[in-house]
Amino acid sequence: MMTKHTLHLHLVSEVQLSYKTKVKASDRPKISCPEDAYKILSSHWDLNTIEFVEEFKILLLNRANRVFGIVPISKGGVSATVVDPKLIFVAAIKANASGIIMAHNHPSGNLQASDSDKRLTYNCQQAGKYLEVPVLDHIIITKEGFLSFSEAGLL
Questions:
Q1: pTM for this predicted structure
Q2: Domains, the chain, ordered by start
Protein backbone atom coordinates (compact mmCIF):
# COMPACT_ATOMS: atom_id res chain seq x y z
CA MET A 1 0.00 0.00 0.00
CA MET A 2 1.40 3.38 -1.02
CA THR A 3 1.02 6.16 1.46
CA LYS A 4 0.97 9.85 0.73
CA HIS A 5 4.55 10.05 2.04
CA THR A 6 5.74 7.34 -0.37
CA LEU A 7 4.23 9.12 -3.37
CA HIS A 8 6.35 12.23 -2.73
CA LEU A 9 9.53 10.19 -3.06
CA HIS A 10 8.76 9.71 -6.73
CA LEU A 11 8.67 13.48 -7.32
CA VAL A 12 12.43 13.87 -6.89
CA SER A 13 14.34 14.98 -9.99
CA GLU A 14 17.14 12.87 -11.37
CA VAL A 15 20.55 14.55 -11.56
CA GLN A 16 22.82 13.40 -14.35
CA LEU A 17 26.56 14.10 -14.41
CA SER A 18 28.48 13.80 -17.64
CA TYR A 19 31.72 14.90 -19.26
CA LYS A 20 32.30 14.56 -22.98
CA THR A 21 35.44 15.45 -24.87
CA LYS A 22 36.76 15.02 -28.36
CA VAL A 23 40.26 16.29 -27.50
CA LYS A 24 43.03 13.87 -26.58
CA ALA A 25 44.79 14.68 -23.29
CA SER A 26 48.11 15.14 -25.09
CA ASP A 27 46.53 17.79 -27.39
CA ARG A 28 45.27 19.94 -24.54
CA PRO A 29 47.26 23.08 -23.73
CA LYS A 30 49.53 22.81 -20.69
CA ILE A 31 49.78 25.56 -18.09
CA SER A 32 53.39 26.03 -16.99
CA CYS A 33 53.17 29.67 -15.90
CA PRO A 34 50.56 32.43 -15.49
CA GLU A 35 51.31 33.77 -18.96
CA ASP A 36 50.20 30.43 -20.47
CA ALA A 37 46.86 30.78 -18.68
CA TYR A 38 46.54 34.42 -19.79
CA LYS A 39 47.12 33.50 -23.45
CA ILE A 40 44.46 30.79 -23.36
CA LEU A 41 41.97 32.98 -21.49
CA SER A 42 42.47 36.05 -23.67
CA SER A 43 41.99 33.96 -26.81
CA HIS A 44 38.58 32.88 -25.43
CA TRP A 45 37.49 36.31 -24.20
CA ASP A 46 35.24 38.51 -26.31
CA LEU A 47 37.54 41.45 -27.06
CA ASN A 48 34.50 43.50 -28.06
CA THR A 49 33.17 43.41 -24.48
CA ILE A 50 36.36 43.08 -22.38
CA GLU A 51 36.28 46.85 -21.68
CA PHE A 52 32.51 46.95 -21.33
CA VAL A 53 31.23 44.10 -19.15
CA GLU A 54 32.92 42.24 -16.30
CA GLU A 55 32.95 38.46 -16.68
CA PHE A 56 34.26 35.62 -14.52
CA LYS A 57 35.50 32.29 -15.90
CA ILE A 58 37.50 29.30 -14.71
CA LEU A 59 40.02 27.06 -16.39
CA LEU A 60 39.61 23.40 -15.48
CA LEU A 61 42.89 21.49 -15.25
CA ASN A 62 43.81 17.83 -15.03
CA ARG A 63 46.64 16.49 -12.83
CA ALA A 64 49.23 17.36 -15.50
CA ASN A 65 47.99 20.99 -15.59
CA ARG A 66 46.45 20.49 -19.00
CA VAL A 67 43.34 22.54 -19.70
CA PHE A 68 40.28 20.50 -20.50
CA GLY A 69 37.74 23.26 -20.29
CA ILE A 70 36.85 26.89 -19.77
CA VAL A 71 33.64 27.54 -17.86
CA PRO A 72 31.87 30.92 -17.84
CA ILE A 73 30.65 31.48 -14.28
CA SER A 74 29.07 34.93 -14.38
CA LYS A 75 28.62 38.10 -16.40
CA GLY A 76 27.84 41.41 -14.73
CA GLY A 77 27.98 45.11 -15.33
CA VAL A 78 30.67 47.70 -15.90
CA SER A 79 32.21 47.48 -12.43
CA ALA A 80 31.33 44.07 -11.00
CA THR A 81 29.92 40.61 -11.46
CA VAL A 82 28.42 38.38 -8.79
CA VAL A 83 30.41 35.17 -8.35
CA ASP A 84 28.93 32.28 -6.40
CA PRO A 85 31.75 29.95 -5.24
CA LYS A 86 29.30 27.03 -5.31
CA LEU A 87 29.00 27.40 -9.10
CA ILE A 88 32.80 27.38 -9.44
CA PHE A 89 33.15 24.12 -7.54
CA VAL A 90 30.05 22.49 -9.05
CA ALA A 91 31.72 22.86 -12.44
CA ALA A 92 35.11 21.72 -11.16
CA ILE A 93 33.76 18.67 -9.38
CA LYS A 94 31.39 17.72 -12.19
CA ALA A 95 34.32 17.75 -14.61
CA ASN A 96 36.57 15.93 -12.10
CA ALA A 97 39.13 18.75 -12.26
CA SER A 98 42.34 18.38 -10.30
CA GLY A 99 42.83 22.15 -10.10
CA ILE A 100 41.34 25.42 -11.30
CA ILE A 101 42.51 28.84 -12.36
CA MET A 102 39.99 31.60 -11.75
CA ALA A 103 39.88 34.62 -14.04
CA HIS A 104 37.96 37.80 -14.54
CA ASN A 105 38.38 41.00 -16.47
CA HIS A 106 38.39 44.59 -15.27
CA PRO A 107 36.63 46.73 -17.89
CA SER A 108 38.36 49.80 -16.43
CA GLY A 109 41.75 48.41 -17.49
CA ASN A 110 42.93 48.57 -13.86
CA LEU A 111 45.20 45.64 -13.02
CA GLN A 112 44.90 46.04 -9.25
CA ALA A 113 43.07 43.40 -7.21
CA SER A 114 40.17 44.84 -5.23
CA ASP A 115 39.37 43.81 -1.67
CA SER A 116 36.41 41.80 -2.96
CA ASP A 117 38.70 40.06 -5.50
CA LYS A 118 41.05 39.10 -2.66
CA ARG A 119 38.20 37.95 -0.40
CA LEU A 120 36.67 35.77 -3.13
CA THR A 121 40.07 34.26 -3.89
CA TYR A 122 40.70 33.47 -0.23
CA ASN A 123 37.25 31.90 0.22
CA CYS A 124 37.67 29.77 -2.89
CA GLN A 125 41.17 28.73 -1.82
CA GLN A 126 39.75 27.47 1.47
CA ALA A 127 36.91 25.61 -0.26
CA GLY A 128 39.36 24.13 -2.77
CA LYS A 129 41.54 22.78 0.03
CA TYR A 130 38.62 20.90 1.57
CA LEU A 131 37.39 19.62 -1.78
CA GLU A 132 40.90 18.73 -2.99
CA VAL A 133 40.47 20.99 -6.02
CA PRO A 134 43.12 23.65 -5.44
CA VAL A 135 42.87 27.18 -6.78
CA LEU A 136 46.20 27.46 -8.60
CA ASP A 137 45.85 31.11 -9.59
CA HIS A 138 43.42 33.97 -10.06
CA ILE A 139 44.10 36.13 -13.09
CA ILE A 140 42.72 39.58 -13.78
CA ILE A 141 42.83 40.33 -17.49
CA THR A 142 42.50 43.49 -19.52
CA LYS A 143 43.08 44.30 -23.17
CA GLU A 144 46.61 45.38 -22.31
CA GLY A 145 47.81 42.75 -19.86
CA PHE A 146 47.14 40.68 -16.77
CA LEU A 147 47.73 40.34 -13.05
CA SER A 148 48.47 36.90 -11.62
CA PHE A 149 47.59 36.53 -7.94
CA SER A 150 50.24 33.82 -7.60
CA GLU A 151 52.99 35.99 -9.12
CA ALA A 152 51.91 39.01 -7.06
CA GLY A 153 52.01 37.01 -3.80
CA LEU A 154 48.25 37.32 -3.31
CA LEU A 155 47.52 33.60 -3.42
A1: 0.87
A2: 35-148 (3.40.140.10)
